[in-house]
Predict the structure.
Amino acid sequence: MLFDPLATGKKYAQSGKLRALAVSTGKRSDLWPEMPTVAEGGVPGFDTGVWYGVYVPGKTPKPVVDLLNAEFVAILKSPELAPWLRDQGLEPVADTPAQAKARLAEDIQRWAGVIKATGIKTE
């Protein structure tokens, strides 16, 4: 069994070299809409999609944060970058700083529970 990025996994599945079972995100991918999610396959709540964020120091003034966010959103939506990101299997999401903060808090809470329940330790 392998968890592989959508960009390479889809190519191998379409070539017949790999049998894809599902995507690990909470909803079907716009890049592979016919592929079901793990949750649809019988594991409710399974959502382990990867996301990337841009961070600044906590005391950065709000106008600077807003300007940086606006610039990154424009770049993500640009006709030069957006198609390239999709070719890499990435679905650009232009969250607001508040949405990104909430997403990070949710991930920390979820994975802290998994770490505690399974007894995972750093080495």
